[in-house]
Amino acid sequence: MAEIEFVKGNEAIAMGAIEAGCRFYFGYPITPQNDIPEYMSRHLPEVGGTFIQAESEIASINMMLGAGATGARAMTSSSSPGISLKQEGISYMCGSQIPGVIINMSRSGPGLGGISPSQGDYFQATRGGGHGDYRTIVLAPYSVQENYDLTMKAFDLADKYRNPVVVLGDALLGQMKEPLRRHKYRKKKGEKDWILTGAKGRSPRLLKSLYLSEGELTEHNWRLYRKYQRMKREIMYKVEFLEGAKLVVVAFGSVARILKSTVAMARDKGMKVGLFRPVTLYPFPYAALDKLSHKVRNFMAVELNTGQMVEDVKLAVGHKKNQVDFYGRPPGSIPSPDELLEEIKKVYNKRVKK
Q: Cα angle at 274 between 338 and 291, to 5 degrees?
């Protein structure tokens, strides 16, 4: 049986990356994710890896592009403003179909904002924050254990789809400590017949995102689109307390773990409330929510922002007579289970007991 360690969330991400075969890390310091490069700088060289603190976030994402083009498993990490600076490079990686893992332990915004937890980067992560018509798989952990597990999975998905994968956490998930059960990683097999290794003895390979011939870029974008459609095979979500539910609360990441206590409290008070937690934010579990909406008419999205994921919830269930309510908490403070219970009561009394 694997030993259990008491680990900080950021460190769990770094542990999972190294155990998944990450051998190149490129980053630039920003609070509240600095434990990740600190851990990588110490432990990556121990396994023969390379750690580079780049001169900027822009440099770090382009270094990762270069490492990924050779088939190496590479990662970068940052927090919200730093991820914004990486967007051009992320677009280039998607256009060139180069894999890599991008960690965003998001903080408050817009602008410099602050260092408290926020879910204000949802649109940026799920819609493709840079230029062009592209997507990245987005995984949303809600615990230290999932920080570790989903980082491992991110490397497999990046290689499988030749595409960057984003792990979207926040300051709360990065800075808290919880028990972590480490486990042996089993790398997925598969030949990378596209990587750049030098063309001696074979025809040259080309990784690019520039297409100038007539119709060439159109076909390339449709090819990418078909790949993004295949990513729907990877949809993940978790449900709890759904038996007899009259109101389903939808939340991801750190606020979902708070709501787990809130929903249990609501159940104890006789309210038939359930919890739906998307784990993949892209691709979003539209079909699962749609299926649920044929049994439950009332939904409530709760986020640490002024309303972003709620748009996807409405796309999934906003048909017929379904109702979608929203409660948002902009960054700067974290709601308690009791505070969220009062908000759920308001919606429950309005929608269910009317």
A: 150
Q: Are 217 and 247 members of one domain?
A: no
Of 82, 91, 98, nearest in space to 163 by CA: 98
Structure tokens at 199: 């063309």
Q: Return the sign of the alpha-carbon dihedral for residues 173, 174, 176, 180.
A: positive
Q: How far apart are CA 184 and CA 16, in angstroms?
A: 10
| Residues 250, 253, 255, 259, CA torsion sign | positive
The verdict on residue 123 lying in a domain is yes
Tokens encoding 52: 């580079």
Residue 354 has pLDDT above 70, yes or no: no
Task: Report the DSSP pairing between strands 237-240 and 273-278.
Answer: antiparallel
Residue 115 lies in a domain: yes
- 106 pairs with which residues across the strands? 170
Residues 168, 274 share a domain: no
Sign of the CA dihedral running 165, 170, 176, 179: negative
The CB-side HSE value for 283 (13 A sphere, CA atoms) comes to: 17
Look at the block and give the residue holding tokens 């459609």. Answer: 229
Do 182 and 259 sit in the same domain of this protein? no
* Per-residue pLDDT tens digits for 158-196: 999 999 999 999 999 999 999 999 998 988 777 899 999
* The token pair that represents 111 in the structure block: 């602008």
Predicted pLDDT of residue 236: 98
222, 273 Cβ separation under 8 angstroms = no
Same domain as 23, residue 167:
yes
3-state SS, one letter per residue, for 101-118: EEEEEEEECCCCCEEEEC
93 pLDDT higher than 70? yes
What percent of the chain is modeled with pLDDT above 70? 99
Residues 269 and 222 in one domain: no
169 with 308, same domain: the answer is: no
Q: How many other CB atoms are there within 10 angstroms of residue 230's CB atom?
A: 12
| C-alpha distance from residue 199 to each of 70, 97, 192 (Å) | 12, 19, 15
Indicate if the pLDDT at residue 1 is higher than 60.
no
Output the pLDDT for position 79. Answer: 98
